Amino acid sequence: TEQKLGFFTFRKSLMNTQQTQDRTITTTNTRHTTKPVTIADTKLEVLLGKLVAFPTVNDDAKANFQALRFAGKHLAAHGMHVRYIERTPQMYDALLASSRADNAMTPTVLLAAHIDVITADAAMFSLRKQDGRYLGRGVYDMKFAIAAYLEVVAALQHTLPRYNFAILLTSDEELGGRDDINGTRGLVKAGLCPQVVILPDGGENWQLETASNGYMHLVLEARGNTGHSSRPWLGDNAIHKLTGALHDLKSHFKDQGPDTDTLNIATIKTSDTPANQIPDYAAAEISLRLRHAGRLAHWQRTLAEICSEHDITLTEHVALDVIQNDLANPFVRRFAELTQEEVGITVDGFHSYAASDARFFAEIGVPYINTYPHGGGHHSANEWLSQESLTQFRDIVLRYIREVAVER
Description:
Oligomer: single chain
Structural class: alpha+beta
């Protein structure tokens, strides 16, 4: 059957009505003992391996849709109401599943994640284990969360209607909001409004995000006049104009570090000219990360001044200010307490260097839970996740749903 919601069309799967007993997952406080690998943990690992095997890079729409279908079939088989959100000019394919037919857009708890990943060698799309770690593209950023969500639903299958939660999986987060594409933002605009969202795509080593850097994605373009390179005074070299602007901009970032705003010059492109011809076009793609609230307006003014001085055209694709998240919020605090109980660490909070889709919920006042378990190397050839962290995260989320999302 089909259901329309706002400007999105959903293809809705039938709910599996099979009633089976809850599959109990025993949690153990790792401060006292190391959790052995159980049947449930093996299934969790298998799910992660299957998810990693999908090469869900942004330019592979087929792989992303197949991965969403895989997740959707698992969720529907365990009782969730699953809707596939079709691609539009503003978003890529997505999935929205709910524990009941009436709570997809306004659940108590939303479990969110993106299934798309950064490009990698083919070998990285095969889950490997080494020295207590999972290795592969997406194990840390962020298919571990999707595997955990699928197992949480399997554990709650028999009593799903008692709980008020939903799952959102998108396939365009790594685009970074380029060209106004972002499925999470589109759904929030369409009315998606949980009481709290769990979106583990930031923080560090179990620390919950209390703030996230702002982000600017910009393109600088210079145009000049071509001519013979032996007579540079007769032409207008676009590269000279562009590098002059970049040099001035770079002078504002002499001592970049964890507590400062940062600049990354990602690409430089020019007109395809031989060495004896003056280039008439040059462009640079850059990104800025903003550490402190209020810096967005400062950099917009500074960039406008620099570009005007060097006759540069500036295109602003993304401009997001710093967001804040309150660790004392009851929804956030309870997740921190469960993390402390399961992992045995103190959760003090963390200011994330990168942005995530959590910001779109923060902008409408929804508290969010954003953390990474023990792992690292995201966006690199050395992406890894602690094997123990995978089961710990699953157990934390399961306990959280049972406590916070239960209908009383």
